Amino acid sequence: MVFRADGASQPGPGLVGAILRYRGAAGEERIREEDRRIRDDLGATYGALVGRVRAVARRLADERKIVEVGPVDEFAQTLDHFVDRLRTATYGYAGLFAELDPDPGMVEQLRQFDQGLASGVAEIEAPVAALEQALAAGGDTAAPARQGTEGARKLLARFDLRGRIVETGKPVERERALAALSAETPGLPHAAWELDHGVALAVLGDDFVVEAKIGVGGPSAFRLFRLSSAPEEWLFVPEDAEIGLARLSPVDAPPAGEEQTLAGVPYTVAAEGDGSGEVVGAGGSSGVRPVRFIVLRGAQEPAAREVTLDWGGGERQAFAGVGVHPDDVEIFGRPLGE
Fold this sequence. Notes:
By secondary structure, the protein is an alpha+beta fold. It is built from six helices and 15 strands. The protein has helices spanning 14-21, 24-62, 66-88, 104-137, 142-168, 174-181; strands spanning 2-3, 9-10, 200-203, 206-209, 212-217, 222-229, 232-238, 245-251, 261-262, 265-281, 284-285, 289-298, 304-312, 315-324, 329-333.
């Protein structure tokens, strides 16, 4: 992929071309190099946009417009997080080499996602330019900043799905791909989806620092972030925003097949399926394992939530608690010095 000075993209050999040209162990290394080149080019382009947003934030701070700095800084941080992911992500590429010939659907989707990441430059350029114009005119900077933050979150969602394609060597569901690639993507996950170890946040006014997370991929993907150990509390963040956030605590796992009641409270299914799970803490990852999950809502008490993870071999986890309004989760970032 080649980028022009105006930020637009032109077709280039790209990762898909590399997949089609190279095979075997040597081919895998060439694909890694090609993938790195594409992501470095994109990272430089998006990085320049981050710099422009930060310049607006500094100008607002210099002018003592402190209230206006927040939305602009959130835009800069979210976009910078995407750039960091873009530049540092590593893939196993197991899926690309599982067979001699890649899945044609995967190849086509990967091409679409690379184009989507390139077209995202224009989607971010628009709110950046509007932000600069608002600053120059003394107008409202919050609106274009919020638009830019939403666009950056959309790019993160695209990149997550692209990574899944590379890892598995299989295309994702067509509807999910179309939604992620759309310029009008609905149902983006809450910003808490991108939480990581050491990030400070507040939930319902209580302050926490993320200690660990459990990531579950597959249909109805979600993440559980451990907020504290004593007492143990977790924040449930689904990829599908419509399922809703929840603040949970560990409970005794119900017997298999009896997940839809807890302490006599009946539940309805919000999501369930088979996926891949990973526990990540300060010491690193536990490794990816198959997991069966079910996410429940209270039948008579809509705020009630329950999540059960079945790792196989009799290893089961369950969490229960209450739903949390998105506005009741405030993310501060990493403490200074980290």
